[in-house]
Specification:
Layout: H1 17-32, E1 80-84, E2 87-92, E3 105-111, E4 114-124, E5 135-144, E6 150-156, E7 171-179, E8 188-192, E9 201-209, E10 215-218, E11 228-232, E12 243-244, E13 262-267, H2 277-290, E14 295-298, H3 309-316, E15 327-328, H4 342-348, E16 360-364, E17 367-371, H5 387-398, E18 403-407, H6 425-434, E19 438-441, E20 447-450, E21 466-470, E22 487-491, E23 496-502, E24 506-513, E25 522-526
Parallel strand pairs: 13-14, 14-15, 17-18, 18-19, 19-21
Antiparallel strand pairs: 1-11, 2-4, 3-4, 3-10, 4-9, 5-8, 5-10, 5-11, 6-7, 6-9, 12-25, 13-23, 16-17, 20-21, 20-22, 23-24, 24-25
Helix pairs in contact: 3-4, 5-6
Length: about 525
């Protein structure tokens, strides 16, 4: 159940059965009445609709009883390291000989004879010699909430998740912190442990119940929202996005955390009648089955090779076209190989915006989402003074959303075959100045995630935009050149889609591959 460290760029085994149950429950809750409002605008005159609908790779060894992730200081948050629990378990006095080290939850309860206590172990590394720890924050993901305070105590004795149970558990040491009644479920809570985590080494903690409410936290075996200790040594270092990687699930696994959460899923570089579009479309099918009101985005080059009406009818429509009614597309250069991208605009209709523009915006949950057109010469440019740039500036100024996401085809930053496209730097700059969180792109037939950065490509953990290139929709896959600055994760071997859970003040991402055991990437971030 443990993992000794956390990395940004390699996969390791995980049991996903609990998140399938959470996803089903969340989907049922939405169907029962949670609503996401759509308001699509394009130059002020598009129709609106309301529909009821978050370096080099290091291989992590995987065994039958433990999971290992590598942890290094965050590359995009200087002065900070996020560490996944090396071991965790819980002991249950009602079943004193039972070992719970492989459970994907940590149970805490004091309702005799059901008395359970959690155990956590963190191996703190990665702090440069001579640096002083300024803060240490324990983050626990609430799976089952309660109304009782949970104490955080030291551990007086030895234990191991492999064999510790209630009959041989170590004694409870002094209390060092307390967690107010955890809740609501489906989100992280935080507790300050800076008084006892003052440097590198092993740090063990008990989670001790104070009442009869059953409370459960996600364990490291869960794989998606494990216990994390965030240690900072640089003064003023902001909280980092928690990032893990894991192998594929046959169904999407990001939970809906609250009623304001929306699901967005998609990719670019999609259908050519001979590629992997049927397989990536199956991922959309699975996503929609788990999240009935999911929205599909496309990051351009929807139908190959020239975006003709016939290619849309014969290649795109039988695959991704199954979700046409929920799709919010953007065009690519191959779509424009048919004059004025008429095959694209005729196929998607008003959902694609005005044929003279191909850019539009909509509200998705708490997020302001902008589908932009990076085929700059076809729409009068992409610089700040262009019609699209002026429209974007106006859209951003009019929005009061805390969180903003944009997607288009050509990436500003890339380690791929095409390389960076400076033609879209004006769009990126306007988004950066407004405090946007995410930019999604395609064009490169690969997956690449960047650390938050400014329009010049300088790392900026506080205000920077995280760009994710996901040109893995089915056409073909390509290799990389030298890694671009701030590139955190790269993969050119797996088709798949990007799944986003958009929360009211943050987001989660997960790359879903088409093949079991294929590459994936996941993590979380906060809105500015």
């Amino acid at each position: 159940m443990g993992a000794n460290t956390m990395t940004d760029n390699e996969s390791s085994g995980r049991d996903r059965k609990r998140y399938l149950n959470i996803a089903l429950a969340a989907a049922a809750a939405i169907v029962a009445g949670l609503a996401i409002g759509w308001a699509i605008s394009s130059s002020g005159n598009a129709p609106s609709a309301t529909t009821v609908p978050t370096g080099s790779p290091t291989t992590a060894p995987v065994g039958p009883t433990t999971t290992t992730l590598a942890t290094t200081p965050s590359t995009d948050i200087p002065g900070q390291v996020s560490i996944v629990a090396a071991e965790d378990t819980y002991v249950d006095e009602e079943t004193p000989d039972e070992v719970n080290g492989l459970n994907d939850t940590i149970e805490v309860e004091d309702d005799f004879p059901e008395v359970t206590r959690g155990l956590l172990r963190f191996q703190v590394t990665g702090i440069p010699e001579g640096e002083t720890v300024r803060s240490a924050v324990l983050r626990l993901f609430v799976v089952d909430d309660g109304e009782d305070i949970v104490g955080v105590n030291l551990v007086d004795g030895q234990w191991s998740q492999a064999d510790t149970n209630a009959s041989n558990a170590p004694a409870i040491g002094r209390q060092v912190a307390s967690i107010p009644a955890p809740g609501p479920e489906g989100r992280y809570i935080e507790v300050d442990l800076g008084s006892v985590v003052t440097g590198p080494g092993q740090h063990d903690f008990y989670l001790v119940p104070s009442g009869g409410d059953s409370i459960a936290f996600a364990s490291a075996e869960d794989g998606f929202n494990p216990p994390v200790l965030v240690v900072r040594w640089a003064e003023g270092a902001p909280p980092a996005a928690t990032t893990t990687t894991a192998p594929t699930a046959e169904t999407p696994t990001l939970p809906l955390l609250d009623g304001d959460t929306a699901i967005l899923v998609g990719a670019g570089d999609i259908a050519d009648c001979e590629g992997a579009a049927p397989a990536t479309a199956s991922l959309l099918d699975q996503t929609v089955a788990e999240y009935p009101q999911a929205v599909v985005f496309t990051a351009g080059d929807n139908a190959y090779g020239e975006g003709t009406p016939q290619e849309f009818a014969e290649c795109y429509d039988p695959t991704w076209g199954r979700h046409k009614d929920r799709t919010r597309p953007s065009p690519g250069n191959h779509d424009y190989q048919t004059e004025d991208a008429s095959g694209y605009f005729d196929y998607f209709g008003s959902a694609a915006g005005s044929p003279q523009q191909g850019y539009y915006s909509y509200q998705l949950g708490a997020w302001h989402v902008l589908a932009l057109n990076s085929n700059c010469s076809d729409v009068g440019g992409c610089d700040e003074s262009s019609p699209q740039g002026q429209w974007l500036r106006s859209e951003l100024a009019a929005s009061d959303a805390l969180c903003t996401l944009a997607y288009w085809h050509h990436p500003l930053f890339s380690s791929g075959e095409h390389g960076p496209d400076d033609g879209v730097d004006g769009l990126f700059r306007l988004l950066y100045e407004d405090g946007a969180e995410l930019v999604l792109a395609g064009h490169e037939h690969s997956y690449e995630r960047f650390a938050p950065q400014d329009p010049q490509g300088a790392g900026d953990p506080e205000r920077g935009i995280r760009q994710i290139v996901v040109g893995t929709g089915g056409r073909s896959l390509r290799d990389f050149g030298p890694a671009a600055p701030n590139s955190e994760v790269r993969n050119g071997e797996s088709f798949g889609v990007l799944l986003l859970a958009l929360h009211e003040n943050g987001y989660q991402w997960e790359f879903l591959p088409t093949e079991a055991g294929g590459f994936t990437d996941q993590g979380t971030g906060s809105c500015h």
